[in-house]
Amino acid sequence: EPEVTQTPSHQVTQMGQEVILRCVPISNHLYFYWYRQILGQKVEFLVSFYNNEISEKSEIFDDQFSVERPDGSNFTLKIRSTKLEDSAMYFCATRGGLAGEEQYFGPGTRLTVT
Amino acid sequence: GQQLNQSPQSMFIQEGEDVSMNCTSSSIFNTWLWYKQDPGEGPVLLIALYKAGELTSNGRLTAQFGITRKDSFLNISASIPSDVGIYFCAGQPPLFGNEKLTFGTGTRLTIIP
Hints:
The complex is a heterodimer.
Chain A lengths: L4 E3 L2 E4 L5 E6 L6 E7 L6 E7 L2 E5 L7 E4 L6 E5 L8 E8 L8 E2 L3 E5 L1
Parallel strand pairs in A: 2-11
Antiparallel strand pairs in A: 1-3, 3-8, 4-5, 4-9, 5-6, 7-8, 9-10, 9-11
Chain B lengths: L3 E4 L2 E5 L4 E7 L5 E7 L6 E6 L5 E4 L2 E5 L5 E6 L8 E8 L9 E2 L3 E6 L1
Parallel strand pairs in B: 2-11
Antiparallel strand pairs in B: 1-3, 3-8, 4-5, 4-9, 6-7, 7-8, 9-10, 9-11
């Protein structure tokens, strides 16, 4: 069964450093999303991406965040200058092209900022 | 922003018991989804609901989309040990092109031996 994959599974970084989280969507899916989950809390939407541009973003997704799909397969989330409060699980999700299709989540990347 | 209230927050049951949890919202959703999350892993989709009043089953799981479009419930019958985890509801609003999911606060299911 096709699945969303994410790398790395765990990233430890120092405050102020840049990190790039990577996602490989399910083949043929067209809509891509990033969510985050702070430990013990609910999953929160960050950004949606379609046709090589951001379609919606939340207030969490400030200028420190960016997304791109550089090679047509990987979908990346970059945090330019990490803060302690960026420590969380980051999930990529993807959806096919038909209305009403569900979002499928990857296993997540645990980001720890020290 | 939209808020989803999910209850109960946690449940402690014995194996074989039935489980019921629900989500309510102050605003309308077009789609309700139920996910299960195991520790350290991503949410896994259990059931998707697209129409008000819809009742859908997936094995021992049954979920319904409330007729007001502001609520949904999930039932698990005859619970087994692998049902342990956190269950999240998620709603998708009706605006075309607005696909973000709003997640509930989760229900943690524990099975007492």
